[in-house]
Fold:
Amino acid sequence: MKRLLSIAAIVVLMAALFFVVQPARGDVDQRIQALEDELARLKGEQMELKREATAAAAALPAFSYRPGSGILMEAADKSWSLRTHLRLHTWVVFEEGKDQVGRSRGEVAARRVRPTWYFCLNNCFYEAEIALDLDGFQTGSGHSSGADTTNGGILQRAVGYVHFENINPWLPTFYMGADGPADISSYRQGSSNISAQLEYDILSRNAGFNTGRFGTGMGLRWEDVPLRAIGIPGRMRASFTSARHGEGDDGKTSNTDRKSFSVHTQIQPFTQLKNKWLTGLGFSVGAWFCNFDDRASDNGCDELRIRDHGPFGRQDLFRTDSGLIGDGTHHAVTPSFRWAIGPYELRAHGYFQRYENSPIRGRDFLIAHQLNVWSPKGWLTGGVNDRGTFFVGYHFERTDVSCSSTSGSTCEVSNQFHRNRIILNEWDMWYVIQRGMNVGLALLWYDASNLRSGNGRAQENLLETNSTTSGKGGDWLDVILAWRWQF
Structure:
């Protein structure tokens, strides 16, 4: 009986325990399920936040920097972009001649100080280029302040572009504004940032067209157009402008409705071939038609003036009387040639000009060599943008100018001679510190068949004489240490 009672008690106890534990176990399962549900919800929210963060990051503008091209800030969808860069060229100049007339030895020249901004919309279909010229040398705020209205301001570019080539590569870029680009030759210097040659040839730089820009105007240009569609395995670039070349700088008026025109084309017919002898071959030709108006206050072709490169105390080697130039069209034509193979580059350039209804004539030719001597890869390797490259250059140019009147008398403004022959030999050595930055040494040896006499003029300045005899020539050497940086 006692055993039965014990068994019954145990059964009752187990039953009670079962009824007590069962609800607890169900509550635990519910809690576990609730926790699993909460964890799944948090994971979903985390994934959503991650997707939103990724989308937000993708929508932020992208920033990039490339030495030589500057900083680019661009929207993710390319709806807009802003690029900025700085060109800084600093020279230490040692010029032969007297310091009292501006020749300088050991003085620092800020040859180029030009910050530039490019603003783009709609994947750069619309573009604005704004640049400042802060280096002086007859420009800059020091020459446009106060009551001085004869010189330009500090603009280097103020141009708007519409890139129709974004629709079709055969369509041009249209542009208009102030201080816009106007090409006439691709090979008269190469690039002021990376070419061994320090400046353009003397004639084209001094005879109105200068660096290849107009004061105010508009133009069309084609850049890097592939020609395979017409059976030529190469590329082409071309331009046409209707503008005020050499006048109307920084948006000023020339007070005339007569426009000037320039055309230019360059073809590299074999760039898509795998032939080292032909790939680097290129041809360029340009022409400038300057419509001279003797009623206007500013004309881009009102004289033929030849000066050395300076930059301090630039000397007049030849200058015509502007009264000899009447209404008409001034013509300048410049054929050029380039051939590059491996570490070597050859350029040839000519410039021929005449003034309608005027006895003034000018012509020059230039032949230039450039060689990559050494780089970290070894001898005769490297490039002008490759760190550690050492390259050299030499160019020869001869300029002939004349101004013979029908009566046989002189028509040069100093009234001493009517023609001049100017030769320039230039030797250059450069070392590439990094892409967009190099340092170098340039030796410029000039020789002129005639130097103008008189107080402070070239003959007294260079030959250390007080002679007033005309027709006497001479030679001189300028040495320039240069640092070029394209940020």
Q: What stands out?
A: The first helix runs from residue 2 to 59. Residues 138-150 have pLDDT under 50 and may be disordered.
